[in-house]
Amino acid sequence: MAKFAFLVIVSVVSLISTEGTSATRVVGGETATESQFPYQISLRRNGLHSCGGSIITKNVVLTAAHCVGYDDDDGNYTLHDPKTLTIRAGSIDRFMGGVLVRVVEIIAHENYGNFLNDVALLRLEDPLIFSKLIQPIPLASIEVPPGENIVISGWGRLEHGGDIPRYLQWNTLSVLSRSDCKDRIPYDTDAIICLDHDVDNGACHGDSGGPATYNGEVVGVAGFVTGGCGSSYPDGYAKVYYHVDWIKKHSNL
Q: Where is the Peptidase S1 domain (predicted)?
């Protein structure tokens, strides 16, 4: 049993990616239509897609902390230079359309580490102009009950080493209880929402930071997979309801 637990732990990986390392799509997903996910953005580092995110105000985007920083040689979490980051909003095409806006400030959770408190905010240089294609999404107002369906979206991989989609993908997963989650992956915390799925479905590299939504609210931020994309293990998302006070405080909501 101890050996099995160790193998699970070492196979927990983030969902971050870059186009240079084949950022592809949601596993088993469908192609989104224009205006279906007007809150979804592509976070770009040095011009290349790396993560997703959610518009929560005209000036602020919610994403994952591991999307906006890295561990240095001493193991200290260090933020990327915001000058290297832009977002594309208002387009399901990661290559064109919508608007590109520079990031001027990164605010990552001060207690981020080991996929816990994996949330961050991006302040934009110019305010977004809301339209049919660009809209904010409300933050989670309730704890989502186990068994409920959740919609995820992103430009992440179809599978490990899979093809790169040009267009935004989406899929439907279901919420696991904390106890069921603990039995299947090495986390036992209210800070994570566990999303179950069939094999060959779910989030993958390039989906990091992107939204999980329920009843028109963002309830999760894509964080990690266990055992590879589309495995039999649930995907881990930072729970927005757990972090909602922190998000509101730092975004002036």
A: 26-252
- Give the dihedral of Cα atoms 165, 126, 251, 208; nearest 10 deg: 10
Nearest one of 17, 241, 251 to 144, comparing CA atoms: 241
Please name the residue that has the structure tokens 């009950």. 145
- The answer to whether 190 and 205 are in contact (CB under 8 A) is no
Q: Please name the residue that has the structure tokens 């999307």.
A: 67
CA distance 111 to 181: 22
- Give how far Cα 252 sits from Cα of 59, 107, 247, Å: 10, 13, 8
- Residue 191 and residue 201 in contact, taking contact as beta carbons nearer than 8 Å: no
pLDDT value for 148: 98
8 Å CB contact between 172 and 159: no
Whole-angstrom distance, CA of residue 17 vs CA of residue 215: 28
Q: What is the pLDDT of residues 184-193, one digit of tens each?
A: 998 899 999 9
| Residues designated as active site | 66, 118, 208
